[in-house]
Automatic annotation (TrEMBL):
Cited Pfam families: 5-FTHF_cyc-lig
NCBIfam families: MTHFS_bact
Protein name as catalogued: 5-formyltetrahydrofolate cyclo-ligase
EC number from the UniProt entry: 6.3.3.2
Top-level enzyme category: ligase
Organism of provenance: Blautia intestinihominis
Keywords for this protein: ATP-binding, Ligase, Magnesium, Metal-binding, Nucleotide-binding
Amino acid sequence: MEEKKLIRKQIFKLRKECTDSQVEAWSRQIAQKVAELPEFQSAQKILAYADYNHEVMTGFIIEEAWKQGKEVAVPKVVGQDMVFYKLTDFSQLEKGYFGIPEPARGEIVQWEDAMMVMPGVAFDPQNHRVGYGGGFYDRFLEKHLQIKRVAVAFDFQILPSVPTEPTDISPEIIVTENKIYQLTK
């Protein structure tokens, strides 16, 4: 879709213009908000993406999860699918698909009862999401509907509205440095 392409271009440009210290400061604020969510507190297992290219940095969320004795897994792209590997140390990550950090080794996990920290390019206040265009998260989540979905984003990634498709699976919660958007049932 043309509109999604334009949105991606616009957001990537804004992300590029952020300084590393801005990205880090905002990511720390977001991590703190995520850690306070009841969904995070009650989850024993966290599925999180490894950040790349000025995305919200997930390392702070992962460290907090470890500190609280939770298990963490990160995705690796295998063909058209994402496989989650248990992460016990950041040294397990190496550059993978499109240069995105992925687990090079470790135990593959199939967690149904988990909270997922989702990435995305843009969102709207109705919790619609524009991803990177690969459909990996939608395909994974349609098979794992009981996983709690929490997206993390910077404020500038929240647009008044974004285009949606029937196959899109929305996050239930979006956390930015200043706000939390809850999907009303």
